[in-house]
Every structure is written in structure tokens, then in C-alpha cells.
Amino acid sequence: LKIGRHFRIAPDAKLIVGRNEEENKRLEELAGPFFFLFVPDTGSPNVILEGNKKYLKLAAAVTARYSDRNREKDIEVQYRLKIKTGKITVDPISDDELAQWRI
């Protein structure tokens, strides 16, 4: 719990969102078996999703919310799971919705 912002988005899923460059680097190192998300070509946190793929869209919306593009719609978020990569387009999650999951 010492690294990043933590959100319990479901009983079986948690997000960790980097708060600065140092935490982002550390989260990328720790991503290993977890989904790793970020918004390319902008100031963006690195995010780890500890949970299965059904939470990927929600994790991407949280990633978009903390990026420098958080006032835009249709933000492309890239993700990686081990060697598999992909991208998903989402709107940023609202602050009210996000607040319910903060640990």
C-alpha cells in the first residue's frame, strides 16, 4: 500500500495507480502477471489491474481519468498482460464513481 493510489473495484479486483514518475517506474517493474495500463503520448499514470479481463474497461476508464487528457472523450488506453498487448477506447470515469472504490 505504500506505492500509488489503491482502488478495490470488486471483491476480486484491485487497481494501483501511480502518482509520480518514480511510482510509475516501480509499477511497471511489478506488473509481471497483472494487466499494465497507460495512456500513450501524454502525461499518464501507470496502472496495474489485479483482476481478470472483465475489469479491463473499468481499469482503462480510471487510467484515462488520471491522465493529462482527462477532460476529453474517447481516450485510447494501451494495456499489456505479460507479452500480449492491446488498446481500448474509453471515456474517463467520473470522480463520484471513482470515490466509492478508493481504499
Q: What does the model show?
A:
This protein is α+β, with helices and mostly antiparallel strands and 103 residues long. Helix content is 24%, strand content 32%. The protein has three helices and six strands, in the order ββαββαββα. The chain has a six-stranded antiparallel β-sheet. A hairpin with an 8-residue loop joins strand 3 and strand 4 (47-50). The longest helix has 10 residues, at 21-30. The relative contact order is 0.21.
Q: Could you name the ranges where pLDDT drops below 50 across 5 or more consecutive residues? A: none
Overall shape: it is globular
Share of helix among residues? Answer: 10-25%
Question: Could you give the order of the helices and strands?
Answer: EEHEEHEEH
Radius of gyration: 12 Å
Would you count the extended β strands for me? Answer: 6
**Share of residues in strands:** 25-35%
- The residue-averaged pLDDT reads 95
Give a short account of the largest sheet. 6 strands, antiparallel
Distance between the termini: 9 Å
The strand order across the widest sheet is 1-2-4-3-5-6
